[in-house]
Write a structure and sequence with these properties.
There is one protein chain. The protein is an all-alpha fold and about 260 residues long. The chain has one domain. Helix content is about 80%, strand content about 0%. The protein is built from ten helices and no strands. Helix 1 crosses helix 7, helix 6 runs antiparallel to helix 7 and helix 7 runs antiparallel to helix 9. The relative contact order is 0.07. About 5% of the residues have low confidence.
Length: about 260
Amino acid sequence: MNKNLAKERTDLLKSIDKLLEGPMIFLGFVWLVLLIVELIWGLTAMLEYLSIAIWIIFIIDFAIKLILAPEKKVFMKKNWLTVISLVVPALRLFRFFRFIQVIRGARGLSVFKVVASLNRSMKSLAATMRRRGFLYVVLLAVVVMVAGAAGMYGIEKGNPGFESYGMALWWTAMRVITAGSEYFPITHEGRGLAFILALFGYAIFGYVTATLATYFIGRDAEEEDTPVAGAKDVSELKSEIALLTKAINELKEKGN
């Protein structure tokens, strides 16, 4: 592809992405809420139509971006989870899926749908929060716990520790904060989702620990009686060095 044409397509893609960013973020959160409702209570006919409408909008948005993308293979590799999240709902439009729902494979599709929806929500939160890193992580943890609990409840419903959504939410929260619990998922799909939640929990725990450590070290450095050089001491030292450098330069000029 011509470099100029590729650049024009890339610029147009960025413009469209920026233009649709706000509405797509909103629809992404709505779709996640509908998924949680579906897994816990099931959707009414009106909510089902709303979910399908949002799904169609996502397909149109993805198709436009795919057409404009200069490197389509690279674009597909970066958005493979989005592709899964768009393909899975299509299975509900086929009658034979009513039969598939009674077998084990349907639970695996639920795992993919939960993970793909969480991936979209992570991107939406990242776009919304921008540089507010710690607040972004806290909100993301809440979203993952709420949606992850819905996924665990939908997959493990009736098994010990997952008799209700409240129990599933407690179990997921314990998993995310790495505390664990006495209950374990029985199905293979539930174990797979639990493993993903555990990985997320360890990543979040490391980030929060590092953030808190940085905060307290910074507070200690601001104390005047701290045993190590604080921020104020470093600032004063810099000022003295600047004055000393200026004095040396003035003496050199007089000597010349």
